[in-house]
Specification:
alpha/beta; Rossmann fold; Cytochrome-c3 Hydrogenase, Chain A, domain 2; five-stranded parallel beta sheet; two-stranded antiparallel sheet; 13 helices; 11% strand
Length: 319
């Protein structure tokens, strides 16, 4: 079935709205191009609900969300920003952790809204580290019992289109990453593209395939054994706490906004914000060196490869 019109519902839980800020800065295409139908392939996108950038507010906004829950806007893509708290813990003291609005004088709790919407959604996309894996809110000691959407709904969850939760981690992910992923899923829903290949953590491989270490502009210095001993030097920052060797992210290659920026590109270290364990070990403390294992393994592979390369040069080849 071809879907001419696709509604998008974006809800926010425990987070800083950084992913929303990021997506509004996305380019090629930007949100205006997406929502005005400038790109024919992904026209017909209707942003039904977004608590930060929508015009309605207060109970008028809550009424829209209630209409979505009751099926008025099927089919829709559900985008989730922010972690999901454990409201049972809050109830022990007679309160709640995360409300998303009131309707008829009753608070709408984020976890309840998410659960109800997930039963109607064609696709569920967890945007950012918090929604994907819990992010900062779930860091030790995790007082609110925060977790990612995939852990809240269960790893066996399937959306209306038969898809698992799609994770787009990052703190935040780049606007381009978010828009490219949503665009791909829209085209998947319309039968124009296959379902994106996902890795073991439900991240689209075409957006999260390589490790930062593999595509870092400083990788050549690592290969040459040159390390920065203090910030501001141009060499590999592995000795300064960079976690790029254990982090999957394409920002060093693609940039953050219009091909520019990115942690290691501008002199910062990778802190591993696209990984499930973030911000806990092995990604914290942020300035602590990454585990020695990956470096030792790569060093051995590098030595073997270089010996093979030297030996191969002793053999002549036909040109």
């Amino acid at each position: 079935m071809t879907l001419e019109k696709i509604n998008v519902v974006w809800i926010q839980g425990q987070g800083c709205t950084g992913c929303t800020v990021s997506v509004t800065g996305g380019t090629n295409p930007d949100l205006i191009n997406v929502f005005t139908g400038f790109l024919p392939q992904i026209e017909g996108i209707n942003l039904v609900y977004h608590p930060t950038i929508m015009v309605p507010w207060g109970e008028a906004a809550s009424k829209i969300l209630d209409d979505v829950i009751n099926g008025k806007y099927d089919p829709f893509v559900l985008v989730v920003e922010g972690a999901v708290p454990d409201e049972k813990k809050a109830q022990e003291t007679g309160g709640y952790y995360c409300g998303v609005g009131e309707i008829d004088g009753k608070m709408m709790l984020f976890d309840d809204v998410l659960l109800k919407l997930s039963k109607r959604a064609g696709v569920v996309v967890a945007v950012g580290a918090c929604a994907s894996f819990g992010g900062i809110p779930h860091g030790n000691p995790n007082p609110t019992g925060a977790k990612g959407v995939i852990n809240f709904l269960g790893k066996d969850y399937k959306s209306g289109l038969g898809l698992p939760v799609i994770n787009l981690p990052g703190c935040p992910p780049s606007g381009e990453t978010i828009i490219e992923a949503l665009g791909h899923l829209v085209l998947t829903a319309r039968g124009a593209l296959p379902v994106p290949e996902l890795d073991a953590d439900n991240r689209p491989v075409f957006l999260y395939g390589p490790k930062v270490h593999e595509i870092c502009p400083r990788a050549g210095y690592f290969a040459g054994g040159k390390y920065s001993s203090e910030f501001g030097e141009p060499y590999c920052m592995g000795m300064l706490g960079c976690k790029g060797i254990i982090t999957h992210c394409q920002v060093p290659k693609k940039g953050f906004v219009e091909g520019a920026g990115g942690c290691t590109t501008v002199g910062g270290i990778c802190i591993g914000c696209t990984e499930p364990e973030f911000p806990d070990e092995p990604f914290s403390p942020f300035l602590q060196k990454a585990p020695v294992g990956p470096y030792a393994s790569e060093a051995m592979e590098d030595m073997v490869a270089k010996v093979k390369a030297v030996l191969s040069r002793l053999l002549s080849r036909k040109i």
